[in-house]
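Reminder to self: tokens first, then the designed residues, so the page reads top to bottom the way the pipeline ran.
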């Protein structure tokens, strides 16, 4: 069927901010869908609250609404734009749930909007746990025994039939949110309560456990004519019981017999037909009993999912793009495969290599979080690697993770054999303990178990990891032992045959060196010398068809084979280094900058070469850059590519801290770094050199010192005076930073968090309490500097800039202060010789401006600023690096927008029960949303709604603040009462308010007896919580207040500046109706019709 002609315009709903379980794979799918639909001539209208994604760039869709994704707002968009159709399958769970809300509300019917890609019935059948179970039984497929419950009594009845262990899964959530495994009655009741709270429809499924079974997923595409292709079978190395997003996964499936695979394929096709997904991609998950091959269906997602991104990158088959074309009426046999140019999309991909995905976790950011892996997803990002064998891919994936591990390094110090005097029994007991429950580092403990003599049977009994995988890891361990055996021999070089064997198995130079006890430089030297003309690294192409047809898109991976398919061109070319796996502190914002760099190079007629290993992103799409190397971002792997390609230079400043770490090693190896010089980067990153720089320019910095021992730390702190901010040197995203209020706090920090040493000093700065923090972004070509955006933080200094909400332009700073910051930015950029982007943070206290830090690279605020002012900064920065000046590019000064933009951060606290939600100098947010409006109040209100905690219009506010905040809290309370709120406060705060003539009810603190404040919040009697604390003791006392506010989805503020902004927001909502405008209208571009 050719495309539908009854549709002219299509509304796409994006996935909103990045959270655990819903990361940038939906940014990638939405971007692909936008491109595909525009290619077909449709008018595309997009709503997505996330500023950090390429998808919300004004040039991608025809109308882009950066607004909260709520049923009310989407209804307004539909009313304004009158789309003919809605495509709900590209925005993850957010889009599906919003679509179901619009269907129930009758909005789609009212405005005559058709659903394409998936019908309401299909979404309901797949997402509603009970409906799905009945559908599976109708087609004769087995699902684990289960029942659905809407309250505790129903849950306990079901438990009586199912028994322990029981798995709890809430309906209509993603990433297994709220789900868990209960092994006893007490746990069960806790998880049920939590699960019912997390499900948007208050429904949970309680099901029998199939923990320890093997888990598989199939990516399936189906069109209107009932053609079905299986894009890729994926096998989880971790058994059932670990969420697939947290499992190490392998494609193609490794341990299925052909008969089992055919059975699974047939089942997947039957499921697609029964659920009624007639256009687009779905992912179906199966469990297999390793004892007898029994198969059960776990679940199905009637949308593009995390696994779709992985399957797309693993096969080169662009699932989202094809799903978008199927949704508008094409069939699979009408869509051409971009990579081969001759086959059609109905030609099922086959692959002649192995792909391994490993998740990346962030438990160290959340004190008190439970690191056990369960049915609820906890990872924040992932890496993928491609190799000729499972062993090679696994080792490449491990070094892609950037966890300072160059292979299966031992956790027990057994890398070079078992040291003398090791108590084997004790070591074995420790390893067994680690293997009993799934944790993020399980793979490394499995390797240690083998070093200590556990058999595959022992390990299978402990972990239920398939013996085939265990045998593969064992073979790597045996080879490691062989290398260690070579260590003492003279001369200290490996036999060539052994060196190539090690490289074929995926060993990095670093790991080989470590096992031999030599330097990695000597291994590299031997490898490049021995390989001249004969052996060396080779690159293979991803071609979707196992080399049956030629690949026209250079999508490459390295391996040590016999022939190389790289075929580099002789054009002018530049290598862009990506950001690697998503993690807290380095997210999709950096990927956004890399994609812009590739676009800019294309416009300048220079070939762009992308190097990255993150399968979820737009930068690793085969059509983003001219050439794509899917490789780890390590010195060894990058140098190999540079050697093969011979580029003009390498760009480091867009990928966050990952490529910056490579600045010195690469420039030592003679690679030309484009943009700001490594020397300037070091001047800004090295504390002592940075201090000299500020003194030279006459700029101020908070008093500080460097401590190389505990005594020195105590001396510096008393000299500067408390409170002080302490942190280790060289970090990203504020890892293990803390504010310390007294000597005992400092001693505890020095004892537990970090070990100070002459090589790794601890930095101590005066903490500027109650200062206003400001972020600024500038772009420079070496002689001209344009300060693009100055953002005022809403939370005070001391909250990490990535976690603070901020406003552009500033909402409370005077003009003279803004001008002075602009002057300081310009001076810093010129002194450092910045070419490209620069970001700096300032603190303002008592009319004095202090410089906090300067980053001579693209920062996480670049996409936000670009969208707020309507100038693509990253693109222009790339052009300055290849020699253009800013006046040539037409940027003399940054436009001053008449609207306000507010960025708000989004946190993963609901995934970690028991972790405190207080903000501090260590970054904890996973994503961000943006609110835009003509006035600050509404912009802030939209950002809160986008982040999932909308401001209330009336009701009871609860206030409990530290003593120094009371005068400010008085103002907040007076305004709330003026707006019609009633106020409750704890005894101290309430007494202060009454003394100043303001009436407030007193409520008990948790320690003071019942009913206390948490009871009030639980009963839904409170709509707004303001709670500020100073010391650690009071933190613990009020923890339950903040947790309960979070569980209930209430607006809660832990800083007074946040509370003030909230009052401005509430006032705006009460005075003025919600209005929306597209980015194109704000920036006066595009068609202003309708």
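Designed residues (1090 positions):
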């Amino acid at each position: 069927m050719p495309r539908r002609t009854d549709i002219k315009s299509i509304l796409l709903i994006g996935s909103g901010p990045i959270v655990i379980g819903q990361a940038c794979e939906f940014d990638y799918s939405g971007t692909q869908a936008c491109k595909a639909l525009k290619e077909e001539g449709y008018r595309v209208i997009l709503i997505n609250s996330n500023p950090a994604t390429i998808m919300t760039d004004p040039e991608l869709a025809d109308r882009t609404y950066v607004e909260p994704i709520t049923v009310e707002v989407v209804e307004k968009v539909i009313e304004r734009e009158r789309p003919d159709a809605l495509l709900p399958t590209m925005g993850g769970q957010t889009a599906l749930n919003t679509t179901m809300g619009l269907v129930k509300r009758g909005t789609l019917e009212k405005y005559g909007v058709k659903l394409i890609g998936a019908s309401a019935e299909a979404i309901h059948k797949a997402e509603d746990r009970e409906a799905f179970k009945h559908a599976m039984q109708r087609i004769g497929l087995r699902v684990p025994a289960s029942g659905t419950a809407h309250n505790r009594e129903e849950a306990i009845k079901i438990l009586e039939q199912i028994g322990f262990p029981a798995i709890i899964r809430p309906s209509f959530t993603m990433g297994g949110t709220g789900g868990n495994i209960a092994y006893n009655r007490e746990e069960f009741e806790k998880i049920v309560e939590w699960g019912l709270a997390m499900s948007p429809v208050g429904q949970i499924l309680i099901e029998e456990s199939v923990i320890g079974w093997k888990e598989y997923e199939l990516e399936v595409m189906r069109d209107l004519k009932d053609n079905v292709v299986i894009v890729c079978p994926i096998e989880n190395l971790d058994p059932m019981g670990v969420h697939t997003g947290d499992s190490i996964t392998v494609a193609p499936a490794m341990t299925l017999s052909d008969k089992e695979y055919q059975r699974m394929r047939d089942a997947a096709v039957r499921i697609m037909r029964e659920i009624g997904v007639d256009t687009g991609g779905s992912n179906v998950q199966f469990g297999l009993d390793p004892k007898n091959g029994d198969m059960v269906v776990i679940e199905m997602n009637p949308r593009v999912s995390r696994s779709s991104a992985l399957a797309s990158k693993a096969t080169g088959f662009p699932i989202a793009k094809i799903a978008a074309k199927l949704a508008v009426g094409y069939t699979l046999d009408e869509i051409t495969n971009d990579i081969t140019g001759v086959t059609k999309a109905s030609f099922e991909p086959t692959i002649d290599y192995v792909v391994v995905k490993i998740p990346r976790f962030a438990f160290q950011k959340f004190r008190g979080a439970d690191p056990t892996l369960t049915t609820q997803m906890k990872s924040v990002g992932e890496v993928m690697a491609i190799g000729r064998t499972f062993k090679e891919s696994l080792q490449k994936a491990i070094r892609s993770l950037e966890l300072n591990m160059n292979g299966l390094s031992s956790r027990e110090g057994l890398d070079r054999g078992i040291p003398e005097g090791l108590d084997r029994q004790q070591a074995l007991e420790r390893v067994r303990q680690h293997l009993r429950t799934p944790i993020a580092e399980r793979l490394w403990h499995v390797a240690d178990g083998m070093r200590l003599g556990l058999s595959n049977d022992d390990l299978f009994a402990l972990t239920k990891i398939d013996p085939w995988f265990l045998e593969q890891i064992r073979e790597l361990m045996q080879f490691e032992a062989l290398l260690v055996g070579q260590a003492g021999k003279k001369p200290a070089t490996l036999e060539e045959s052994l060196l190539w064997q090690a490289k074929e198995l995926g060993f990095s130079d670093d790991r080989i060196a470590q096992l031999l006890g030599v330097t990695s430089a000597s291994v590299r030297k031997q490898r490049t010398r021995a390989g001249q003309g004969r052996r060396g690294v080779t690159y293979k192409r991803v071609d979707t068809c196992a080399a049956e047809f030629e690949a026209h898109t250079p999508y490459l991976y390295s391996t040590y084979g016999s022939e190389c398919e790289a075929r580099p061109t002789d054009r002018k070319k530049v290598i862009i280094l990506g950001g690697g796996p998503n993690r807290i502190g380095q997210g999709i914002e950096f990927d956004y900058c890399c994609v812009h760099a590739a676009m800019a190079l294309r416009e300048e007629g220079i070939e762009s070469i992308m190097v990255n290993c993150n399968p979820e992103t737009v930068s690793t799409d085969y059509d983003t850059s001219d050439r794509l190397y899917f490789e780890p971002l390590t010195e060894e792997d990058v140098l190999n590519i540079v050697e093969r390609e011979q580029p003009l230079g390498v760009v480091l400043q867009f990928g966050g801290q990952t490529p910056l770490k490579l600045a010195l090693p690469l420039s030592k190896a003679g690679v030309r770094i484009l943009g700001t010089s490594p020397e300037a980067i070091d001047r800004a990153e090295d504390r002592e050199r940075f201090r000299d720089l500020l003194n030279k320019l006459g700029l101020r910095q908070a008093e500080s010192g460097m401590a190389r021992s505990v005594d020195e730390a105590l001396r510096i702190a008393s000299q500067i005076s408390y409170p002080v901010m302490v942190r280790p040197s060289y970090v990203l995203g504020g890892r293990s930073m803390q504010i310390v209020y007294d000597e005992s706090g400092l001693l505890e920090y020095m004892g537990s968090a970090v070990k100070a040493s002459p090589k790794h000093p601890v930095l101590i700065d005066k903490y500027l309490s109650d200062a206003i923090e400001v972020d600024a972004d500038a772009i420079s070509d070496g002689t001209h500097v344009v300060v693009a955006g100055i953002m005022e933080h809403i939370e005070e200094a001391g909250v990490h800039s990535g976690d603070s909400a901020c406003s552009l332009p500033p909402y409370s700073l005077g003009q003279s202060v803004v001008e002075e910051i602009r002057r300081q930015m310009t001076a810093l950029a010129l002194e450092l010789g910045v070419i490209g982007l620069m970001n700096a943070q300032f603190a303002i206290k008592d009319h004095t401006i202090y410089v906090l830090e300067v980053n001579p690279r693209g920062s996480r605020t670049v996409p936000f600023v670009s969208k707020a002012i309507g100038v693509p900064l990253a693109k222009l920065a790339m052009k300055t690096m290849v020699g253009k000046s800013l006046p040539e590019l037409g940027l003399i000064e940054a436009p001053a927008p008449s609207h306000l933009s507010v960025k708000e951060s989004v946190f993963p606290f609901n995934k970690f029960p028991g972790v405190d939600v207080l903000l501090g100098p260590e970054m904890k947010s996973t994503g961000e949303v943006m609110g835009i409006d003509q006035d600050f109040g509404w912009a802030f209100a939209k950002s809160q709604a986008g982040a999932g905690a909308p401001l209330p219009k009336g009701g009871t506010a609860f206030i409990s603040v530290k003593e120094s905040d009371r005068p400010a809290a008085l103002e907040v309370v007076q305004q709330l009462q003026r707006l019609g709120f009633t106020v409750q406060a704890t005894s101290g705060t309430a007494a202060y308010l009454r003394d100043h003539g303001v009436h407030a009810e007193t409520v008990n603190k948790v320690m003071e007896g019942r009913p206390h404040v948490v009871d009030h919040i639980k009963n839904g009697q409170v709509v707004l919580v303001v709670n500020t604390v100073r010391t650690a003791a009071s933190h613990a006392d009020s923890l339950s207040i903040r947790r309960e506010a979070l569980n209930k989805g209430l607006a809660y503020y832990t800083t007074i500046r946040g509370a003030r902004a909230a009052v401005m927001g509430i006032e705006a909502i009460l005075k003025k109706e919600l209005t929306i405008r597209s980015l194109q209208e704000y920036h006066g571009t595009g068609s202003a019709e309708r």
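The chain has 37 helices and 39 strands.
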